[in-house]
Write a structure and sequence with these properties.
The structure is a single chain. The chain is mostly beta strands. The protein has a single domain, classed as ATP Synthase, domain 1, CATH 2.60.15. It is built from no helices and 7 strands. Strands 1-2-5-6-7 form a 5-stranded mixed beta barrel. The protein starts with a strand and ends with a strand.
C-alpha cells in the first residue's frame, strides 16, 4: 500500500509499505494492504511503518488524523517536540 505521513511543515514519509502501526483514541491499530476504508483521530505516540523491504521507520507524533482508502494510508500529524 502507499503510505504518506505529513506534518504542517514536512513530508515525514512517502512510499510503499507493508504495515502502519499507530495509536488512535480507541486503541492501537495496524493497517495492512487492502484495509477497509477508515478515518480516525490519532493520539500522542510513535507511528511505526514497515516498508516494502522490511525496514522499520519510527515517527514520533503529538496528535493527528489517519485516512485509509483504496490501498493508501495518509496521516496528517503534529510533529512531537524533540526531547
Amino acid at each position: 500500500m502507499h503510505v504518506s505521513v505529513y506534518s504542517l511543515k514536512n513530508v515525514l514519509y512517502e512510499g510503499e509499505a507493508k504495515s502502519v502501526n499507530c495509536k488512535t483514541r480507541l486503541g492501537e491499530i495496524t493497517v495492512l494492504d487492502h484495509h477497509r476504508p477508515l478515518i480516525s483521530a490519532l493520539t500522542k505516540g510513535i507511528v511505526k511503518i514497515v516498508d516494502s523491504e522490511n525496514q522499520e521507520h519510527y515517527i514520533p507524533m503529538g496528535s493527528g488524523f489517519l485516512e485509509v482508502r483504496s490501498n493508501t494510508a495518509r496521516l496528517l500529524v503534529d510533529e512531537a517536540p524533540a526531547g
